Amino acid sequence: VLTKKWWHDAVVYQIYPRSFCDANNDGMGDIAGIISKLDYLQQLGINIIWLSPVYKSPMDDNGYDISDYQDIAAEFGTLAEMENLIAEAKKRDIRIVMDLVVNHTSDEHPWFIEAKKSKDNPYRDYYIWRQPQADGSVPNDFHSYFGGSGWEFDAATGEYYFHQFSKRQPDLNWENPKVQEEVHKMMNWWLDKGIGGFRMDVIDLIGKEVDKKVMANGANLHPLLQAMNKATFGDRDVLTVGEAWSATPEIAKLYSNPARDELSMVFQFEHITIGWHPQNGKWEPQPFDLIKLKKVFTKWQTELSDSGWNSLFWDNHDLPRAVSKYGDPGKYRVESAKMLATALHFLKGTPYIYQGEEIGMTNVRFDSIDDYQDIESLNLYYERTAAGVPHEQMMEGIYENGRDNARTPMQWNSDVNAGFSTARPWLKVNPNYTGINVQAALNDPDSVFFHYQKLIKLRKELPIMTYGQYIPLLDDHPDVFAYLRAQDDQRILVINNFSAKKIALPLPAEIQGIQGKCLISNYQPHQDLAETITLQPYESFAIAYT
Ligand code: TEU
Ligand code: CA
């Protein structure tokens, strides 16, 4: 049985600092802007902020390319302001989880500047260098996730360096004990400042075996994480969540089984990648299939139930907006946003809310590729259209799955630039901000915001939401995601209509006729559950009964 942890029933709110709130009106979100919105986050009821990177960076990948792990990028503010954020959040019982990006650094990090100087520089082996092949070509055909070869030639020393992401994000060599030592030292420096833990960027890649082209889950990975745990956060009561695109439930147990002294949990992505094309990935999105999605949720809920811990999320700064992806951004935007919130928050695990999700922000469609900023979308647009993919097809992929969907400025009110800034924002605001914004949400007791607030409050009041067993129902229904949570003689029934259709739903025998207490609903609560109930478009409710 799992021993209770403070983060089991916590709710995390992810802030992408660039797009959250711009206090000094230079068009870029900043730390002072975050501090100015802490009361709003306290009102929502969240306990943890996962802060995407704010460290010094040339911003090639919006801060996921770090040139100084122990200083703050001028665009976001100063170290003093960062320490003030930690203190101000603490006053509101909110912990700050920092983003740890140590699979790679920026090419402007002093370590890399040194490493490039010569083959025998003491920092050379902080990174991964290989000789060209006899004909001068790249060491192998590894393709960067951001387009082009994963090898960049350095003429000064006549060797290639390895980068899984942009060529300005050289991979660190984690086989080098000095790299491990430097990173552990930096982590303790942040932990000593009172942060609440780390989100670990592409952590499944640090055990890579480059010559075998094994990137995720390399032989070194778990030994490295156990060493990191021991040297840094292991004896501190903090949250650690590893981003693991490659994780299966079996692998997730290796990270999150408390007996293994590695991490608290991981972000797994199977529920995301089932919607991707086997070859063309996110750029050729597949039709939404709820039965497939339910199978994945059920697998993770059951297999990770007692020997690990689930993270629960629809959105983050790399993913499209949930209400556009899985709900209806138009007529039933509010109903479907609330349905998605209920469907996720009653599952077993720690829920993550991405900035703007709590007010039902949607994807965006900019007319020109020049309006887009994300290095991944831009690189892949040019690479794929040059390879013959039609412009319209690539734009559809960007509209559906591009990362800028999540990065348009947070919509605070209906003033210019949605109250994000009085200056022109670094990325255009979604034009629908006039109707979709925090001020409108706080003025409407029936808004998506108050639905999230209630879900968070219920989690604090009902241990069954955190520890109850997950029992799937109606597995084969194509439009309804239904499940039970069970603890002792208590039950919570959760029913979610993932469609705009009115549905006559025959109920399973074991729940026919129950008399319960409606915990939350996005329509009028059902008085009693007869043999068949009628679900409205995107209707979703949770009923507690014994
Ligand atoms: O993302 C990991 C990552 O692989 C995603 O970029 C993913 O490949 C893509 O969105 C889906 O095609 C992490 C960070 O979350 C991301 O913002 C960074 O760009 C990336 O690592 C490099 O640090
Ligand atoms: Ca600013």
Automatic annotation (TrEMBL):
Assigned keywords, A-Z: Glycosidase, Hydrolase
InterPro entries associated with the record: GH (IPR017853), GH13_cat_dom (IPR006047), Glyco_hydro_b (IPR013780), O16G_dom_2 (IPR045857), SusG-like_C (IPR056300)
Designated name of the protein: Oligo-1,6-glucosidase
Pfam families: Alpha-amylase, SusG_C
PANTHER family, alphabetized: ALPHA-AMYLASE FAMILY MEMBER, NEUTRAL AND BASIC AMINO ACID TRANSPORT PROTEIN RBAT
Family affiliation: Belongs to the glycosyl hydrolase 13 family.
GO biological process: oligosaccharide catabolic process
Known EC number: 3.2.1.10
Residue ranges constituting the Glycosyl hydrolase family 13 catalytic domain according to the UniProt record: 14-407
Recorded GO MF terms: alpha-amylase activity; oligo-1,6-glucosidase activity
Coiled coil: none
UniProt keyword annotation of Cell inner membrane present: no
Top-level enzyme category: hydrolase
Originating organism: Tolumonas osonensis
